[in-house]
User: Fold this.
Amino acid sequence: MKLYYVYILECKDKYLYTGVTNNISRRLVEHNKGLNESCFTYKRRPVELIFHQEFNDIEQAIYFEKKIKKWSRKKKLALANNNFDLLQLLAECKNTTHSENRDFDSVRTDINLDDFIFDTQKKSKIEPVLLEELEAKKISLFIKREDQLHPTISGNKYRKLAFNIEEAKKQQKQQLLTFGGAYSNHILATAGAGYEFGFKTVGIIRGDELGNDLEKTLNNNATLRAAKEFGMQFKFISRSEYRLKNTDSFLKELELEFPNSYVLPEGGTNDLAVKGCEFIIEEKENDYDYICVAVGTGGTISGIINSSKENQRVLGFPALKGNFLEEEINKNNVNKSNWKLIQDYHFGGYAKINSELVTFINTFKEKTIISLDPVYTGKMVFGVLDLIQKDFFPENSKILMIHTGGLQGISGMNILLKKKGLPLLK
Assistant:
């Protein structure tokens, strides 16, 4: 049985470092030899192993590692010293802003790619959506919680990145390079994947003004701040230059500036991403009459269409204005015709939102305890429930909605809502 270890090192300057590996002896040697100059421990050698715990499930190991990385220094030392009374006492203090509770750890950059692989067939749970209005319409509604696949690389981003990470590893690339706006779920997911699997990451961000005062930008933008904490390097470019991102000349310039990069398109959609999204729908879900999903670049719905059955109807709810998405979806080797785009619920376009949608998302959470993001899934669920009230679906229909994640964007959206004097998302 293969074992995995979560470990804590104490550096010569007393900083603590937390990591995870499948070979604790080898990893300790690697740290003390300083094989990776960019590693947090490189200039803090020698290091001493003060704690390790073994797991036979990599997901459990990663979860535990992330959990204790958020702990205070005192709490980590209590764990290392088996002082469980003190550990319990410290656990009672929830004030993470207190000076004694600040974490001294840094972003992990020394992961050996041989240690980890994406679980390309990872399963997510399905929950019933229990609302009174559904009973009157004789509709059974369910939601698939793809948003819970991973703490950072959640939802459709996990699916899109899975086979791309494997390909980057096969090509022996050193870093992932991709594109996105200031609140892009894909930017954060790529940064998180790089952190998780040992790649450096580069984000080409739309809006050169954001780079004028990076500290201010990061203070006001939780998405970019989290990506930065995961080690992502930013290159801010003008909107006119950003429109050239797919041209050969622009990509060649980036190749010279960031050599040995594995390039991911904006939103992450390519053939490997579509392949990953085909695993969203499982064989046991063949009895659903309708599968509903939000649409951004078209990659996620393309994979779902390919894995759906002919008797199922796949409905896509675009988050953008315009009729160009059908052509994009057809480019993704879609081999079925059992799908349709519902164009009526974009609320004015990408990232557009109003008080009606905010109220809906907040009310839905109160009734179901399920959070929805305002850019994608929130609009899709709004559309599905509105169509149910309009008798779009036949009686006794069984509907599966796909929650594609994106909840990290709520804090950034609330900043914009506050500026506009609109109610905030809970």
